[in-house]
């Protein structure tokens, strides 16, 4: 029986913004699998990639996230089918970034470059036996127990062991050594400071096998701190002042969290365990797993970039993020176990490290070189190690990618390129040719008359204005001299408030409340309309404007949107509650998959609400009934179905804080022009949605389909793009 492919991605809140490198990462893995060193993308996961029937990318030329939400009701098929969505950073050369081409990579030279790489691999494979990874583990893929450190290896590498000198007062996790290849993996990382005692823990992070953060806490050292090591730890004296948690509290929590057969994963994990003063029998140390000669070790930062394609420990950040490091170590171990030693050895990490060092030396020389020495600098530079794009790699495997559109999409000869004069012709060619290709890029466009920067700016302003109205409610009437504080407190229980003002133009006072999230405004309308607040029975409503006449319809469609399926919104949380507190509080809810705690993107402080995503829709319905009326730390919770839990939440926040500056003057100038053309635009968008629906229905089962609104870069500002993705299954909907 054919295996069904599946796509999973935790795209909530801050995790919804995807770069072109990350998109390239997904498409490369989907198209090539584990060949050509294509690894699972870092931000989502494809299950049973080898069973994918093909990859189809639909590009909506010169369209952005604004278009999707301005014509949300017209994009009937897109919002019903594609559950996974992300904000896409706009790019100057979108298609080039889609192929994975670097700025120094000439298309006509790609095939030649790849051929030489392939021939080099033959030589390298004969030397594979000399690789320290192969010498240590052999070539065959094995279970995780083959990579846990033996007792002798732990002693040799200074791990805390029961009965060893210096470990007398250490606490055991009480996990046994009865591990199997099915035992759960947990990533662990600590940040330390220097005290009179030595190294003491100041921060601890634990993640589970799915990368979910289970523990991320600051810890107050027992002794006087001599050096906070803020450059590396990111921990400051100010951060630790209010902290009450002590090492013993963390030890107790870890003992409760870890099952009896838990395997801890970390990079130089011995240092973390010693700082925690804990003993654990089953460990995988990634600094030893990715073996090198003469006792040398790769740094975690290098391995994350070379193996996972992830940038961690960035210089612009203050200190390391222990959750990020724990997750990176975990994913490195998972990669090693899944791929096996031979595939890891083929990465040729030593060569990559040498190339990286040469590049750093070259950049240092260039920075020190006086002006006028450009020729000599070029002679001193090492040859660039450009990566071939995956379109070229596909050709080598005997596959010819298909590109269809109105303009010249590809000048390299790498693809079957067919130009058409209309979207209808492009669709017809796609219906005929896509089934014959394993990788296709189909580009539709609205036409040049609809892609002017003035119209884009006016569309943006219309969307921003409507979303602002949807976030706003009016409530009243109140008695003269009413208590504004109690009104703010009552409305604040529905969610974070952006602003609250008193309306004095009316006979009796009203209040105008603008919220930060759509769910909060809707919750206020649903729960407080007709309620008694500050001694008055009040009416709660949204602004009444022409643009808001279809607000109820839009709210209903957002609620039924497949992206919000199985997601609920919870308000009324105390701001003192941490993510760990909430994880514990909601742990009894069945099938809870992800918890997202929104933060102010400027201050980093979390809001008094959260989103809960469940594996099953019915579990979300059950949770909704259970949560309403719950009291957590003295606060009564309110909840409802989510409306904007994913990328839209972040975009709304950014719009809220833009103060409507983008293109506002243009909006008023072009209002008449937009009104004339918008009706035609609606019809075109509706037809475009129908074209995509027809194409999608023609695809084979197990086809990955990605629809991209590339975003815009213009003199009037940049507008983010939008990506929708899913794997088609028998039901017609994308598999999640």
UniProtKB/TrEMBL annotation:
One of its GO terms (cellular component) is nucleus. Keywords: Exonuclease, Hydrolase, Nuclease, RNA-binding. Residues 471-545, 566-644 form the RRM domain. Signal peptide: none annotated. InterPro entries: Nucleotide-bd_a/b_plait_sf, RBD_domain_sf, REX1-like_exo, REXO1/3/4-like, Ribonucl_H, RNaseH-like_sf, RNaseH_sf, RRM_dom. It holds the Pfam family RRM_1. The keyword Hydrolase applies. GO terms for molecular function: exonuclease activity; RNA binding. PANTHER family: RNA EXONUCLEASE 5, RNA EXONUCLEASE REXO1 / RECO3 FAMILY MEMBER-RELATED. This is REXO5 exonuclease.
